[in-house]
Amino acid sequence: MSTSNTGFLADFTVMSSFGATPGGGVDRQAGTPEDHATRSWFSTWLAGHRLREAVDAAGNQFGLAELVPGAPWVLLGSHLDSQPLAGRYDGAYGVLAAAHAVVRAAAAAEAGEFTPVFNLAVVNWFNEEGSRFTPSMMGSGVFTGKLPLETALATQDLAGATVAEALAAGSPASDSAPWLGSIARYAEIHIEQGKILEEQNIQVGLVDRTWAAAKYLVTVDGDQSHTGSTRMPDRRDALYGAALVIAAARELTEEFEPGQLHSSVSQLQVLPNSPVTIARQTVMNLDLRSPDESVLARAMDLLGKRIAEAEARSRTEVSLALTHQWGLNPYSPAGVRLGRAAAEALGFSHMDIMTVAGHDSTNLKDHVPTVMLFVPSVDGISHNEAEFTRDEDAVRGVELLTEVTRRLVRGDAVED
Amino acid sequence: MSTSNTGFLADFTVMSSFGATPGGGVDRQAGTPEDHATRSWFSTWLAGHRLREAVDAAGNQFGLAELVPGAPWVLLGSHLDSQPLAGRYDGAYGVLAAAHAVVRAAAAAEAGEFTPVFNLAVVNWFNEEGSRFTPSMMGSGVFTGKLPLETALATQDLAGATVAEALAAGSPASDSAPWLGSIARYAEIHIEQGKILEEQNIQVGLVDRTWAAAKYLVTVDGDQSHTGSTRMPDRRDALYGAALVIAAARELTEEFEPGQLHSSVSQLQVLPNSPVTIARQTVMNLDLRSPDESVLARAMDLLGKRIAEAEARSRTEVSLALTHQWGLNPYSPAGVRLGRAAAEALGFSHMDIMTVAGHDSTNLKDHVPTVMLFVPSVDGISHNEAEFTRDEDAVRGVELLTEVTRRLVRGDAVED
């Protein structure tokens, strides 16, 4: 059994109907009924393509093609969950492309086109997005030992539901899922979520590094008081303090060359969030990202100064907790070379590219040789219903991932 | 039956135990179990003091002393509901003071100390605070015809529960409650929630005017996109837009003389409020208040200009909907004179004072002659667990309100 490009596009259309939104996107946050419906459809798809399904305790959903009994696995995947009101491609494209690549490569091995030395599997990592349950990349984080399983399962959404409860509403775990020690190679394909491939008119990207990043949790403590009668100099307004922090984070990017620093604050809680009571506390995320580690270091330093100014101006106390930080994190150069060789064999134009966004491959690449591929995004739009990748780019990506998979499964060198 | 000052303080302590918070305040938002428990205790209190209870369809809870069968009513009251994590005094002090004043004045009339020409009632207005169900002053708004009953009952909290459902969980309405046309006079006492009486060392305030105010609902529309990969110039970040609006509203106050303009933003909703997706929309309240109508007019004009700058800078669209506006709204000068005469008869130091905050009396005074009184707040703290009024000030207020009530019930002139 193999698959066609028209079959891939037809599957993508059907898959995009789960959690479909009026604006042409999807809304299927991790563990919601919409996510479970997508997982259930994918389960049926796996069975229809003779891939054995296995689900681990963290909710990661595998489809297995055993080519060499007892051998380690080449694993391909991404995630089917989405942000709220998100696009159809982010993650879901990569899972379906991986599933088709597994089927195509397995068929080629069975047809004797090459001799496999590994087994082959596709994975749908649970909760990559982290919008309902924080942190993001949860399923691959547990799989790679970065996040304890118990911590993940006990994580609550804003309504108090746990990951364990959300998973129990879907398909149960099986005891036959692969584990980290049985994985030999990992590959993932994703839409770029940026404009570089499109602007340079290049067909595929070979991801060689992640941007450096620092992620903070920022808490502003003020004092509740009456919005009307409290004199302005007496106020310790935690929402005004937050506004100064948000503006400072944004305006920090203007102190560097264009493209050298990205910053964002996107989630904010206000207490008590009442129309007639000044906020006593606000809590927000704050991210800084750069393709240059020295820029990031300077930005982190400047952020501290700007926060002190915001504190003084708003008479609040701002605490800045660094929750994650990473440098320019390289992907395996040999993996990049393997991807490049595959693109050249297929005649696709290609370039090395950095990823600003995190991916499940960011977790996997620290443990096994990993190949990360990009296809172009129209206008770079992502986390938006208008996210779009052209059909010809989408199927070209499936073809590239299939060629990469054939090379990985036959044991081409990926060690540096 | 009459009451003592020590009895008043003892009642106040018991009443403050409903919805009590660890920080010494209360949390009993309208229609919650904590609000119903307080209402239920007050119902028992009314019966114990031979006041007949009646509850109207908007949840306003009355205690009636019929002195002159068929005559109109002198009504005294305030509200028992609170902000989240609020102080014990705001509203609740005024209801209990009114209840004691009703009992004392009724006893004096029955003892033949004066001849009543009106009946006498205390009221606990439903949902003055408006934190759970917007708008504020809901019960008195329905009572005075400013808000349709159907609109009030259909109002939902953030969890989707309606006012009708919240009321049904408590005591049922009776068909014997007073209505606007049967009210002859209204009086209310409240803590100042400001520092003026304390700073000037004055015992009681006679409220002669409200500050002028303009209240807006502000919506900022941007575009969802990825917090990491979206280039800074491409972003249309609705939370950054909100931050600029919040800062602009605050900094507007610095363009006027101290005390001439208060502004606040205290409630903000962020969509989708995800850690990795730039906000597509934010919605917030924004208030401007001034003791000078020309200052308010200039501030409203300047706000429009600052909003246009925030829009341009954040590449968002900001819409500013004026939801409420009022000028320097006078209380009846004859009512102020009556309050002043009562204070002088008791030997209390007094001053005329403006109110920045809205009160149920703001609704009533547009329909019936109204007397509004203040007692001092320590440090002006309000909408905060640390809100405090000294016992001697609290009981002095009960005595003043009792004297005002005697004068109102015997028919002293309050027409201008």
Low-confidence segments of chain A: none
Largest sheet of chain A: 9 strands, mixed
CATH architecture of the largest domain in chain A: 3-Layer(aba) Sandwich
* CATH top-level class of the largest domain in chain A: Alpha Beta
Topology order of chain A in helix (H) and strand (E) letters: HHEEEHEHHHEHEEEHEEEEHEEHEHEH
Estimate the helix proportion of chain A, in percent.
25-40%
Beta-strand fraction estimate of chain A: 15-25%
Mean pLDDT over all positions of chain A: 95
Oligomer class: homodimer
What is the SS-derived class of chain A? alpha+beta
Q: Radius of gyration of chain A, rounded?
A: 23 Å
Number of domains of chain A: 2
Count of alpha/pi helices of chain A: 12
The most extensive interface, with participating residues per chain, is:
A-B, 70 and 70 residues
Label the overall shape of chain A: globular
CATH topology of the largest domain in chain A: Aminopeptidase
What is the rounded distance between the termini of chain A? 34 Å
Number of strands of chain A: 16
